[in-house]
């Protein structure tokens, strides 16, 4: 079953990368399952907020294709600056994560479930950028 990484890289069925990815169908399925759960499941974070955070995390990781994937659905909100500040910290300076960082999110109106969703989203997009880079290396480009 193709996933979003296959789509972004243009991995054709039967190609070298498809054959390599087919060795671990559980990972491919889990990747797409995470994509669906993070971006399509009900959440206190709006879809526009989720895609805006994902777009920015992709940009911080120099993943233009992934950023472009999220850009059409990204939008603004009054609490987006707080969400992006948290995403930047977890992406670029995870050692700075503290209870005060979580308190800033709850002060912006996020529930504990929203904080978990945001953290999962950030971790997932960082994972995607590394997978995309690694797959490009296996394909012989970057």
Structure description:
The chain is mainly α and 142 residues long. It has helices at residues 4-9, 16-22, 25-40, 47-60, 64-70, 80-92, 99-107, 112-139. The chain has a single domain (4-139), classed as AhpD-like, CATH 1.20.1290.10. It contains eight helices and no strands. It is elongated, with a radius of gyration of 16 Å. The model has no long low-confidence stretch (mean pLDDT 94).
CATH class: Mainly Alpha
DSSP strand content: under 5%
- Please give the domain count: 1
Number of DSSP helical runs: 8
Q: Report the span from N to C terminus.
A: 25 Å
Helix and strand layout, with pairings?
Layout lengths: L3 H6 L6 H7 L2 H16 L6 H14 L3 H7 L9 H13 L6 H9 L4 H28 L3
Helix pairs in contact: 3-8, 4-5, 4-6, 4-8, 6-8
